[in-house]
Design brief:
The chain is α+β, with helices and mostly antiparallel strands and 584 residues long. It contains 14 helices and 27 strands. The structure holds adenosine monophosphate (AMP).
């Protein structure tokens, strides 16, 4: 039976989990990692890389690498590469495709269904974009759920006991705080706050600055402009940071980091936790504001919290944990891995929604209900935003209201759908608009137009309007202008499938070319050596075969390589191998 998985599609890292029997299992990727960098790269060789491979080459291929695409979800950002423009949904779909493929090979089963998590503050457009990304990747998205809600599930807190908890989520590039209320079969996000530009990357950068300055002071070499050296320092800085979460000192050894006037220079430094804490104290302090803000917005004080959950890899930093304790007066719960708890909670929901959860377990009995983060309104006379579904309404929800016309013999009405808390339409976000025409001829105020808002369990909105006089109706599923149309999504699904099919073949072509290129440089000295020892004819033949293969390799563009070119390279390589075998 196909498995349903939970996916935490993160800004810096993504993680996936599934329930195997009654156990939650974090699914490792093909490289063996329990989390996968949310990075996609298009290489000069025409290859598409996702995850660790993409992250590792980022410094030498900045133009061809996309990171933190989650920040662009629901916007009209496009990543341009090789004459093609990719939407954030398509880039995210590439990450999801890899996760799906890796999960299938790990579980030995097909994976069709998934629950994907999003930050609690994600708007309708961002949720829709995430759902579309899943579809493009060939996943049936069972539900989009809030990250803090998923964390509460992973901690088994959704157990019928009423409580208020704070979720402190410090990841690689973002910081989110949510105060959530767990009630009887209802989870409500009372407030969210955060900093979109604060995370583990900033902690790494502080270590990098320190190491580069120390290296300059000791060795008198400035490596700031050396892309490769900086990348090596960055990798070591992150490793040192992780070491300092459990040890009090970390050694940083990077051999041959630079070349000075008197030869090669190696980095050999020690970083203590005390120094690390000093370098990053202001970053840790910056998390205080959003915590206080979220508590104030939720209308509670920290003494009303029953638990604090830590989410995100950066909450492993001891100074961060100490700060959380100081801010809330509670010892944060740490028994679920912070970088895995969102995916784990999503896995519980995935199992439940796909109907595979063992009946009788607590999680199966829990019906997850979320609430709308923002009020939904329509614009009425005078540019007023008239709310139909108020903020914090439990979803799924459906609500109808009767409106009428403002002008005599008005033939049509324009329905503008808005999201936000402001009184006037212009101050809220316009989610979409549509026109209901063919209204029965009548004086102003006579026609009865029923407007219905429906929000599904993913927080995705459908609006319909019906002229009760004629029965004529119009309906739209809200997709903001920056999101993809149904047609574009269908096209992206076809592209992704085509890529998937062509991928294996193209990879094979690229391998053939790469192997030939390697062979050329490998046998070149051997052929030159043989000039003195071999038969002149054999030597000349080998030289000619080498040139022929070299010509074919140089001529073909790896991004557009055809089967014919791959075949020609293979044949030319065989000829060269044969010619080389005759040399002495
Ligand atoms: P996430 O996006 O939740 O996977 O968090 C990723 C961030 O957590 C990265 O900046 C990692 O360097 C950081 N991280 C992971 N493990 C640790 C650790 N043991 N100590 C400190 N930071 C960590």
């Amino acid at each position: 039976m196909a498995k349903a998985i939970g996916i935490d599609l993160g800004t810096t890292n993504s993680c996936m989990a599934a329930m195997v029997g009654s156990e939650i299992v974090v699914i490792p990727n093909a490289e063996g990692g329990r989390t996968t960098p949310s990075v996609v790269a298009f290489t000069k060789n025409g290859e598409r890389l996702v995850g660790d491979l993409a992250k590792r080459q980022a410094a030498v291929n900045t133009d061809g690498t996309v990171a933190s695409i989650k920040r662009q979800m629901g916007t009209d950002y496009r990543f341009k590469r090789n004459g093609k423009k990719y939407t954030p949904q398509e880039i995210s779909a590439m990450i999801l495709s890899k996760l799906k493929k890796d999960a299938e090979s790990y579980l030995g089963d097909t994976v069709n269904d998934a629950v994907i998590t999003v930050p609690a503050y994600f708007t309708d457009a961002q949720r829709q974009a995430t759902k579309d990304a899943g579809r493009i990747a060939g996943l049936n998205v069972l539900r989009i759920i809030n990250e803090p809600t998923a964390a509460a599930f992973a901690y088994g807190l959704v157990n019928g006991m009423e409580q208020k908890i704070l979720v402190y989520d410090l990841g690689g590039g973002t910081f989110d705080v949510s105060v959530i209320e767990i009630g009887d079969n209802l989870i409500e996000v009372l407030a969210t706050a955060g900093d979109n530009h604060l995370g583990g990357d900033d902690f790494d950068a502080r270590i990098v600055d320190y190491l580069v300055a120390e290296f300059k002071r000791q060795e008198r070499v400035d490596i700031r402009k050396d892309v490769t050296a900086m990348q090596r320092v960055r990798e070591e800085a992150e490793k040192a940071k992780k070491t300092l979460s459990s040890a009090t000192t970390a050694m940083i050894n990077i051999p041959y980091l630079a070349v000075g006037k008197d030869g090669p220079k190696h980095m050999d430094l020690t970083l203590t936790r005390a120094k690390f804490d000093e370098l990053t104290a202001d970053l840790v302090d910056r998390t205080a504001g959003p915590v206080q803000q979220a508590l104030a917005d939720a209308g509670i004080t920290s003494s009303q919290l029953t638990k604090v959950l830590l989410v995100g890899g950066s909450t492993r930093i001891p100074a961060v944990q100490a700060k959380v304790k100081m801010l809330t007066g509670l010892e944060p719960s740490k028994n679920v891995n912070p970088d895995e708890c969102v995916a784990s909670g999503a896995a519980i929901q995935a199992e439940k929604l796909s109907g595979q959860l063992i009946v009788g377990s607590t999680a199966s009995e829990m019906i997850l209900m979320d609430v709308t983060p923002l009020t939904l309104s329509i614009e009425t006379v005078g540019g007023v935003a008239t709310p139909l579904i108020r903020r914090n309404t439990t979803i799924p929800a459906k609500y109808s209201q009767i409106f009428t016309t403002a002008g005599n013999f008005q033939k049509s009405v324009d329905i503008k759908v808005l999201q936000g808390e402001r009184r006037f339409a212009k101050d809220n976000k316009l989610l979409g608009e549509f026109r209901l025409d063919g209204i029965k001829k009548a004086l102003a105020g006579v026609p009865q137009i029923e407007v219905t808002f429906e929000i599904d369990a993913n927080g995705i909105v459908t609006v319909s309007a019906k002229d009760l006089g004629t029965g004529k109706a119009q309906q739209i599923t809200i997709t903001s202008s920056s999101n993809m149309s149904e047609e574009e999504i269908e096209q992206a699904i076809r592209d992704a499938k085509e890529y998937e099919a062509a991928d294996g073949e193209r990879k094979e072509f690229i391998d053939i070319r790469n192997e030939a290129e390697q062979y050329l440089s490998q046998v070149s000295p051997q052929i030159e050596e043989a000039k003195k020892t071999s038969d002149k004819k054999d030597y000349k033949n080998a030289k000619a075969c080498w040139s022929e293969l070299n010509k074919r390799v140089c001529k073909c563009n790896p991004e557009k390589m055809t089967a014919m070119e791959a075949g020609e390279i293979r044949d030319a390589k065989e000829k060269l191998e044969e010619a080389v075998s005759r040399l002495r």
